[in-house]
Amino acid sequence: MERLQKVMAHAGVASRRKSEELIKEGRVKVNGETVTELGKQVSHSDKIEVDDIPVEREEPVYFLMNKPRNTITAVADDKGRRVVTDFFPMIEQRIYPIGRLDYDTTGALILTNDGDFAQQLMHPKNMVKKTYIAKVKGIVTKKAIRQLEKGVVIDKRKTAPAKTKIISTDIQKDTTMVELIIHEGRNHQVKKMFDAVGYPVKKLTREAYGNLSVKGLNSGEWRELKHHEVNQLRELSKKEG
C-alpha cells in the first residue's frame, strides 16, 4: 500500500505536491469514490481517476541522455523542432526531462516518468552538482575565475559560489575552455554568469549531473539508470547548503 499522491506522482500525473492539490480540490476518485483526504492509501488493484480519466500506472523509469545540439528539452514542440523524447521511440512510458538544457547546449539530461523524483531534483534547495564545460570568447583571467567562485549577480540576484577552473586557452582563436560546477538551476545561468564577467559562451555542454557522467554516451544516446544511481540522486537532493 502507498499514499495516493505518491502513486499519482509515479504515474506521471503531476508532482506529489500538485497531486495533493488535485486531491484537495476533489478531482480524484478511488474505486469510484471522491477522495479529499491526503492520507489515503491505495493498492495496485485500486482504480484511480483524475477528472474522471483513469490513471494508467507505470513502473517508474529513469534515463540519462547525452542531449545533442539543436534539440528542444521538452516532449513536444509547436514549431515541429526535434525534442529529446524523439530519441526514445521504443519506450512506452510517458517520460519527460527534468529541468532544461538550452537548444544549443549539449550533455547530461535526466528523463523520467516519476513526478515526485522530478520535483525533488528541481527543488531550489537541491544540492546536486552540475558540471559544465564552456568554450568562451576571450582569455579568461584569474580575477574572473575568482568572481565566478564567489558568485556574480544575474537577474538582480547573486549566484551561489561555484567551483571553477581553466582547462585550456587558445590565444590564436582568442578562446578559453572552462569547467564550472554549480548546484543551482536558474534560467540560462551558466551563460549569464560568463556574460557577467565579460566572456560570452560560444559552446556549452553539461558533462555531468551529480556523479552521472555522459562519458561513453555519444550525442543522442542514452542509458537507463541503475537502482543505486537513482537512490544516490535522491540522497544528494536532500542535502542543503
From TrEMBL:
GO cellular component, one term: cytosol
GO molecular function: RNA binding; rRNA pseudouridine synthase activity
Domain RNA-binding S4: 2-63
EC number(s) per entry: 5.4.99.-
GO BP annotations, alphabetical order: enzyme-directed rRNA pseudouridine synthesis
Key words of the record: Isomerase, RNA-binding
CDD domains found in the cross-reference section: PseudoU_synth_RsuA_like, S4
Sections of the chain in a coiled coil: none
UniProt keyword RNA-binding, yes or no: yes
Stated family: Belongs to the pseudouridine synthase RsuA family.
UniProt-listed NCBIfam families: pseudouridine synthase (TIGR00093)
PANTHER family cross-referenced by the UniProt entry: PSEUDOURIDINE SYNTHASE FAMILY PROTEIN-RELATED, RNA-BINDING S4 DOMAIN-CONTAINING PROTEIN
Name listed for the protein in its UniProt record: Pseudouridine synthase
Species in which this protein is naturally found: Pisciglobus halotolerans
Lineage summary: Bacteria, Bacillati, Bacillota, Bacilli, Lactobacillales
